[in-house]
Amino acid sequence: MEKLFRLSVVTAEATAFEGEVSYVNLPTPFGSLGVLAQHAPLLCAVERGIVRCTLESGETLRIRVGDGVASVADNEATLLVASAERFTE
Amino acid sequence: MANLRKIRTRIKSVESTRQITKSMKMVAAAKLRRTQASFNAQRDFAARCAAVLSEVSVAVPDPHDPLLLPHPAVKTVCWVLVVGNRGLCGTYNHALLRYVEELARADGRDCFLVVCGRWGRDLLPGTGLRVERSFEISDTPTSAEAAELAAFLRELYLSGRADEIRLVYQQYRSVLQQTPGEKRLLPIPLEEGTGGAREYLFEPDRDALLEKLLGLYLQNTVHSVLLEARTGEHSARMTAMTAAADNTEELIGELTLELNHARQSAITTEISEIVGGAAALRRDGAGAP
Q1: Which end of chain B has the lower number of beta carbons within 10 A, N or C?
Q2: Confidence check on the interface: ipTM exceeds 0.90, yes or no
Q3: Which residues of chain A does B204 touch, with a Cβ-Cβ cutoff of 8 Å?
Q4: What is the pTM of this model?
Protein backbone atom coordinates (compact mmCIF):
# COMPACT_ATOMS: atom_id res chain seq x y z
CA MET A 1 0.00 0.00 0.00
CA GLU A 2 1.21 3.44 -0.89
CA LYS A 3 2.23 5.87 1.77
CA LEU A 4 -0.15 8.74 2.35
CA PHE A 5 0.31 12.35 3.31
CA ARG A 6 -2.01 15.20 4.11
CA LEU A 7 -2.92 17.75 1.47
CA SER A 8 -4.88 20.97 1.96
CA VAL A 9 -5.80 23.34 -0.81
CA VAL A 10 -6.85 26.64 0.74
CA THR A 11 -8.10 29.89 -0.77
CA ALA A 12 -9.09 33.09 0.99
CA GLU A 13 -12.74 32.14 0.50
CA ALA A 14 -12.78 28.51 1.54
CA THR A 15 -10.88 25.29 1.93
CA ALA A 16 -11.24 23.56 -1.42
CA PHE A 17 -9.77 20.25 -0.40
CA GLU A 18 -8.40 18.65 2.72
CA GLY A 19 -7.51 14.99 3.02
CA GLU A 20 -5.06 12.15 2.66
CA VAL A 21 -3.43 11.61 -0.72
CA SER A 22 -0.63 9.41 -1.98
CA TYR A 23 0.58 11.65 -4.79
CA VAL A 24 0.13 15.22 -5.92
CA ASN A 25 1.22 16.94 -9.08
CA LEU A 26 1.62 20.72 -8.99
CA PRO A 27 1.80 23.21 -11.86
CA THR A 28 4.84 25.44 -11.28
CA PRO A 29 6.53 28.13 -13.37
CA PHE A 30 9.23 25.66 -14.33
CA GLY A 31 7.01 22.72 -15.24
CA SER A 32 4.97 20.24 -13.28
CA LEU A 33 6.27 18.92 -10.01
CA GLY A 34 5.33 15.65 -8.35
CA VAL A 35 5.25 15.23 -4.59
CA LEU A 36 5.09 11.91 -2.76
CA ALA A 37 4.94 11.15 0.94
CA GLN A 38 8.05 11.92 3.00
CA HIS A 39 9.11 14.68 0.61
CA ALA A 40 11.92 16.95 1.78
CA PRO A 41 10.76 20.37 3.10
CA LEU A 42 9.94 22.47 0.07
CA LEU A 43 8.51 25.89 -0.67
CA CYS A 44 7.58 26.51 -4.24
CA ALA A 45 5.60 28.88 -6.38
CA VAL A 46 2.44 27.52 -7.97
CA GLU A 47 1.15 28.74 -11.28
CA ARG A 48 -2.33 28.83 -12.61
CA GLY A 49 -3.12 25.33 -13.82
CA ILE A 50 -4.37 21.97 -12.73
CA VAL A 51 -3.39 20.11 -9.58
CA ARG A 52 -3.81 16.36 -9.89
CA CYS A 53 -3.81 14.25 -6.79
CA THR A 54 -4.26 10.56 -6.20
CA LEU A 55 -6.57 9.80 -3.32
CA GLU A 56 -6.35 6.91 -0.91
CA SER A 57 -8.89 4.99 -2.99
CA GLY A 58 -6.75 5.31 -6.11
CA GLU A 59 -9.04 7.86 -7.72
CA THR A 60 -7.54 10.92 -9.31
CA LEU A 61 -8.90 14.28 -8.31
CA ARG A 62 -8.33 17.36 -10.41
CA ILE A 63 -8.41 20.85 -8.99
CA ARG A 64 -8.06 23.94 -11.10
CA VAL A 65 -6.01 26.45 -9.13
CA GLY A 66 -4.88 30.06 -9.44
CA ASP A 67 -1.54 31.61 -8.58
CA GLY A 68 -0.06 30.84 -5.22
CA VAL A 69 2.49 29.09 -3.08
CA ALA A 70 2.91 25.51 -1.93
CA SER A 71 4.62 24.45 1.24
CA VAL A 72 5.63 20.87 1.98
CA ALA A 73 6.97 19.82 5.35
CA ASP A 74 6.47 17.06 7.90
CA ASN A 75 4.44 14.95 5.52
CA GLU A 76 1.94 17.71 5.00
CA ALA A 77 1.42 19.77 1.88
CA THR A 78 -0.39 23.10 1.93
CA LEU A 79 -1.38 25.00 -1.16
CA LEU A 80 -2.23 28.65 -0.68
CA VAL A 81 -3.82 29.79 -3.91
CA ALA A 82 -5.90 32.66 -5.26
CA SER A 83 -8.66 30.35 -6.47
CA ALA A 84 -9.44 26.65 -6.51
CA GLU A 85 -12.19 24.68 -8.15
CA ARG A 86 -12.61 20.93 -8.36
CA PHE A 87 -13.64 19.49 -11.64
CA THR A 88 -14.23 16.18 -13.32
CA GLU A 89 -13.74 15.39 -16.95
CA MET B 1 -62.30 63.13 20.07
CA ALA B 2 -59.61 65.13 18.31
CA ASN B 3 -57.13 63.90 20.91
CA LEU B 4 -58.09 60.27 20.27
CA ARG B 5 -57.52 60.61 16.56
CA LYS B 6 -54.15 62.24 17.18
CA ILE B 7 -52.99 59.35 19.34
CA ARG B 8 -54.19 56.79 16.80
CA THR B 9 -52.22 58.44 14.00
CA ARG B 10 -49.19 58.56 16.23
CA ILE B 11 -49.46 54.83 17.00
CA LYS B 12 -49.78 54.05 13.32
CA SER B 13 -46.62 55.99 12.46
CA VAL B 14 -44.65 54.38 15.27
CA GLU B 15 -45.83 50.98 14.06
CA SER B 16 -44.49 51.61 10.59
CA THR B 17 -41.18 52.74 12.09
CA ARG B 18 -41.08 49.50 14.02
CA GLN B 19 -41.61 47.56 10.82
CA ILE B 20 -38.74 49.37 9.14
CA THR B 21 -36.31 48.92 12.02
CA LYS B 22 -37.25 45.27 12.36
CA SER B 23 -36.62 44.53 8.72
CA MET B 24 -33.35 46.47 8.77
CA LYS B 25 -32.29 44.38 11.72
CA MET B 26 -33.13 41.22 9.82
CA VAL B 27 -31.19 42.36 6.75
CA ALA B 28 -28.17 43.26 8.90
CA ALA B 29 -28.32 39.87 10.61
CA ALA B 30 -28.34 38.04 7.27
CA LYS B 31 -25.43 40.11 5.98
CA LEU B 32 -23.57 39.59 9.23
CA ARG B 33 -23.88 35.83 8.90
CA ARG B 34 -22.52 35.90 5.37
CA THR B 35 -19.62 38.21 6.20
CA GLN B 36 -18.76 36.27 9.31
CA ALA B 37 -18.53 33.04 7.35
CA SER B 38 -16.08 34.61 4.88
CA PHE B 39 -14.20 36.19 7.75
CA ASN B 40 -13.69 32.82 9.41
CA ALA B 41 -12.58 31.12 6.20
CA GLN B 42 -10.23 33.99 5.54
CA ARG B 43 -8.74 33.80 9.01
CA ASP B 44 -7.74 30.19 8.42
CA PHE B 45 -6.02 31.17 5.17
CA ALA B 46 -4.25 34.10 6.84
CA ALA B 47 -2.95 31.90 9.64
CA ARG B 48 -1.47 29.40 7.17
CA CYS B 49 -0.02 32.20 5.10
CA ALA B 50 1.62 33.75 8.16
CA ALA B 51 3.09 30.37 9.12
CA VAL B 52 4.69 29.95 5.68
CA LEU B 53 5.95 33.53 5.72
CA SER B 54 7.60 33.04 9.09
CA GLU B 55 9.35 29.92 7.76
CA VAL B 56 10.68 31.89 4.83
CA SER B 57 11.77 34.82 6.97
CA VAL B 58 13.92 32.42 8.98
CA ALA B 59 15.38 30.99 5.82
CA VAL B 60 16.06 34.42 4.29
CA PRO B 61 18.09 36.18 6.95
CA ASP B 62 18.67 39.38 5.06
CA PRO B 63 15.66 40.20 2.93
CA HIS B 64 15.94 43.03 0.48
CA ASP B 65 12.44 43.07 -0.91
CA PRO B 66 11.29 46.69 -1.26
CA LEU B 67 8.00 45.90 0.49
CA LEU B 68 9.87 44.93 3.64
CA LEU B 69 12.37 47.74 3.77
CA PRO B 70 11.27 50.93 5.51
CA HIS B 71 11.88 54.18 3.65
CA PRO B 72 14.88 56.11 5.06
CA ALA B 73 12.71 59.01 6.24
CA VAL B 74 9.00 58.78 6.95
CA LYS B 75 7.57 62.07 5.72
CA THR B 76 4.16 61.11 4.41
CA VAL B 77 1.78 58.71 6.08
CA CYS B 78 -1.20 57.23 4.30
CA TRP B 79 -4.15 56.27 6.47
CA VAL B 80 -6.48 53.76 4.90
CA LEU B 81 -9.84 54.48 6.50
CA VAL B 82 -12.33 51.62 6.31
CA VAL B 83 -15.76 53.12 7.02
CA GLY B 84 -19.19 51.58 6.59
CA ASN B 85 -21.29 51.77 3.46
CA ARG B 86 -24.31 53.27 5.21
CA GLY B 87 -25.28 55.03 8.38
CA LEU B 88 -27.82 53.91 10.98
CA CYS B 89 -25.31 51.82 12.87
CA GLY B 90 -24.85 53.70 16.11
CA THR B 91 -21.51 55.39 16.66
CA TYR B 92 -19.63 52.98 14.37
CA ASN B 93 -18.65 55.50 11.69
CA HIS B 94 -18.47 58.64 13.81
CA ALA B 95 -16.20 57.04 16.40
CA LEU B 96 -13.84 55.95 13.64
CA LEU B 97 -13.78 59.40 12.08
CA ARG B 98 -12.97 60.98 15.44
CA TYR B 99 -10.27 58.38 15.97
CA VAL B 100 -8.53 59.09 12.66
CA GLU B 101 -8.70 62.85 13.23
CA GLU B 102 -7.11 62.33 16.65
CA LEU B 103 -4.41 60.13 15.10
CA ALA B 104 -3.61 62.59 12.34
CA ARG B 105 -3.35 65.44 14.82
CA ALA B 106 -1.15 63.51 17.25
CA ASP B 107 1.08 62.22 14.46
CA GLY B 108 1.91 65.62 13.04
CA ARG B 109 3.53 64.30 9.85
CA ASP B 110 2.13 64.99 6.43
CA CYS B 111 -0.72 62.61 5.78
CA PHE B 112 -3.58 61.76 3.47
CA LEU B 113 -6.47 59.33 3.44
CA VAL B 114 -7.59 56.50 1.23
CA VAL B 115 -11.23 55.84 2.03
CA CYS B 116 -12.94 52.47 1.64
CA GLY B 117 -16.71 52.60 1.90
CA ARG B 118 -19.47 54.96 0.89
CA TRP B 119 -20.16 56.64 4.23
CA GLY B 120 -18.93 60.13 5.07
CA ARG B 121 -18.45 61.64 1.62
CA ASP B 122 -19.97 64.89 2.85
CA LEU B 123 -18.35 64.79 6.27
CA LEU B 124 -14.76 64.13 5.31
CA PRO B 125 -14.04 67.42 3.52
CA GLY B 126 -14.98 69.23 6.75
CA THR B 127 -12.22 67.52 8.70
CA GLY B 128 -9.41 69.10 6.69
CA LEU B 129 -7.92 65.71 5.87
CA ARG B 130 -6.93 65.17 2.26
CA VAL B 131 -8.65 62.25 0.55
CA GLU B 132 -6.44 60.75 -2.13
CA ARG B 133 -8.90 58.21 -3.43
CA SER B 134 -12.12 56.43 -2.48
CA PHE B 135 -12.82 52.78 -3.06
CA GLU B 136 -16.23 51.15 -3.30
CA ILE B 137 -16.26 48.04 -1.18
CA SER B 138 -19.30 45.78 -1.21
CA ASP B 139 -21.07 44.56 1.91
CA THR B 140 -19.24 41.24 1.77
CA PRO B 141 -15.78 42.16 0.46
CA THR B 142 -14.45 39.76 -2.18
CA SER B 143 -10.84 38.90 -2.79
CA ALA B 144 -11.00 40.74 -6.13
CA GLU B 145 -11.84 44.00 -4.32
CA ALA B 146 -9.04 43.35 -1.85
CA ALA B 147 -6.62 42.69 -4.71
CA GLU B 148 -7.47 46.00 -6.36
CA LEU B 149 -6.96 47.93 -3.15
CA ALA B 150 -3.76 46.05 -2.30
CA ALA B 151 -2.31 46.76 -5.75
CA PHE B 152 -3.08 50.47 -5.37
CA LEU B 153 -1.48 50.66 -1.92
CA ARG B 154 1.56 48.74 -3.05
CA GLU B 155 2.05 51.17 -5.92
CA LEU B 156 1.63 54.09 -3.52
CA TYR B 157 4.39 52.72 -1.33
CA LEU B 158 6.80 51.66 -4.06
CA SER B 159 6.49 54.95 -5.94
CA GLY B 160 7.37 56.80 -2.73
CA ARG B 161 4.15 58.82 -2.56
CA ALA B 162 3.65 57.37 0.90
CA ASP B 163 6.43 56.28 3.24
CA GLU B 164 4.17 54.37 5.53
CA ILE B 165 0.72 52.92 5.05
CA ARG B 166 -1.54 52.24 8.00
CA LEU B 167 -4.99 50.73 8.11
CA VAL B 168 -7.57 52.38 10.35
CA TYR B 169 -10.72 50.38 11.03
CA GLN B 170 -13.12 49.19 13.68
CA GLN B 171 -11.61 46.10 15.21
CA TYR B 172 -14.17 43.42 15.81
CA ARG B 173 -14.31 42.23 19.39
CA SER B 174 -17.83 40.82 19.51
CA VAL B 175 -21.27 41.51 18.06
CA LEU B 176 -21.77 44.12 20.76
CA GLN B 177 -18.32 45.64 20.78
CA GLN B 178 -16.06 47.13 18.13
CA THR B 179 -13.15 49.39 18.96
CA PRO B 180 -11.34 51.74 16.59
CA GLY B 181 -7.80 50.59 15.94
CA GLU B 182 -4.97 50.80 13.45
CA LYS B 183 -2.29 48.54 12.08
CA ARG B 184 0.72 49.03 9.85
CA LEU B 185 0.42 47.52 6.40
CA LEU B 186 3.56 48.78 4.65
CA PRO B 187 6.46 48.36 5.13
CA ILE B 188 5.39 44.84 6.06
CA PRO B 189 6.07 44.25 9.75
CA LEU B 190 7.86 40.91 9.59
CA GLU B 191 7.57 39.04 12.83
CA GLU B 192 10.59 37.27 14.16
CA GLY B 193 10.33 33.86 12.56
CA THR B 194 9.28 31.17 14.93
CA GLY B 195 9.56 28.40 12.35
CA GLY B 196 11.93 25.55 12.98
CA ALA B 197 15.37 25.62 11.47
CA ARG B 198 14.29 23.23 8.76
CA GLU B 199 16.31 23.18 5.59
CA TYR B 200 13.86 24.10 2.88
CA LEU B 201 14.24 23.62 -0.82
CA PHE B 202 13.14 26.71 -2.70
CA GLU B 203 11.70 26.67 -6.16
CA PRO B 204 12.40 28.75 -8.21
CA ASP B 205 14.55 30.72 -5.70
CA ARG B 206 14.21 32.45 -2.35
CA ASP B 207 13.76 35.99 -3.54
CA ALA B 208 11.19 35.17 -6.19
CA LEU B 209 9.27 33.09 -3.71
CA LEU B 210 9.43 35.74 -1.05
CA GLU B 211 8.11 38.29 -3.49
CA LYS B 212 5.19 36.08 -4.36
CA LEU B 213 4.49 35.34 -0.74
CA LEU B 214 4.58 39.01 0.21
CA GLY B 215 2.10 39.80 -2.55
CA LEU B 216 -0.17 37.12 -1.17
CA TYR B 217 0.32 38.41 2.36
CA LEU B 218 -0.50 41.98 1.38
CA GLN B 219 -3.72 41.07 -0.37
CA ASN B 220 -4.60 38.79 2.45
CA THR B 221 -4.13 41.38 5.17
CA VAL B 222 -6.19 43.92 3.25
CA HIS B 223 -8.94 41.38 2.68
CA SER B 224 -9.08 40.33 6.31
CA VAL B 225 -9.22 43.93 7.51
CA LEU B 226 -12.04 44.70 5.07
CA LEU B 227 -13.95 41.66 6.25
CA GLU B 228 -13.36 42.48 9.89
CA ALA B 229 -14.57 46.05 9.40
CA ARG B 230 -17.69 44.91 7.53
CA THR B 231 -18.48 42.27 10.12
CA GLY B 232 -18.33 45.04 12.71
CA GLU B 233 -20.52 47.31 10.63
CA HIS B 234 -23.25 44.73 10.22
CA SER B 235 -23.19 43.85 13.91
CA ALA B 236 -23.27 47.50 14.91
CA ARG B 237 -26.27 48.05 12.65
CA MET B 238 -27.99 44.98 13.97
CA THR B 239 -27.49 46.13 17.56
CA ALA B 240 -28.67 49.66 16.80
CA MET B 241 -31.76 48.41 14.99
CA THR B 242 -32.60 45.96 17.78
CA ALA B 243 -32.48 48.83 20.26
CA ALA B 244 -34.64 50.97 17.97
CA ALA B 245 -37.21 48.19 17.52
CA ASP B 246 -37.35 47.70 21.29
CA ASN B 247 -37.90 51.41 21.79
CA THR B 248 -40.78 51.52 19.33
CA GLU B 249 -42.33 48.57 21.17
CA GLU B 250 -42.15 50.54 24.40
CA LEU B 251 -43.50 53.69 22.79
CA ILE B 252 -46.44 51.80 21.32
CA GLY B 253 -47.23 50.46 24.80
CA GLU B 254 -47.24 53.94 26.28
CA LEU B 255 -49.35 55.37 23.49
CA THR B 256 -51.88 52.55 23.76
CA LEU B 257 -52.24 53.25 27.45
CA GLU B 258 -52.76 56.92 26.74
CA LEU B 259 -55.31 56.07 24.07
CA ASN B 260 -57.26 53.85 26.48
CA HIS B 261 -57.26 56.58 29.11
CA ALA B 262 -58.55 59.12 26.63
CA ARG B 263 -61.21 56.75 25.34
CA GLN B 264 -62.35 55.90 28.84
CA SER B 265 -62.63 59.50 29.91
CA ALA B 266 -64.55 60.26 26.71
CA ILE B 267 -66.99 57.44 27.51
CA THR B 268 -67.30 58.59 31.14
CA THR B 269 -68.11 62.11 29.99
CA GLU B 270 -70.71 60.75 27.58
CA ILE B 271 -72.36 58.57 30.23
CA SER B 272 -72.50 61.37 32.74
CA GLU B 273 -74.04 63.57 30.07
CA ILE B 274 -76.70 60.95 29.32
CA VAL B 275 -77.40 60.36 33.02
CA GLY B 276 -77.64 64.08 33.61
CA GLY B 277 -79.94 64.49 30.64
CA ALA B 278 -82.19 61.61 31.79
CA ALA B 279 -82.40 63.00 35.32
CA ALA B 280 -83.40 66.39 33.95
CA LEU B 281 -86.07 64.77 31.78
CA ARG B 282 -87.44 62.78 34.75
CA ARG B 283 -87.59 65.92 36.89
CA ASP B 284 -89.48 67.67 34.11
CA GLY B 285 -91.93 64.69 33.77
CA ALA B 286 -92.60 64.57 37.56
CA GLY B 287 -93.37 68.27 37.61
CA ALA B 288 -96.08 67.88 34.92
CA PRO B 289 -99.65 67.32 35.91
Answers
A1: C
A2: no
A3: 28-30, 44-45
A4: 0.85
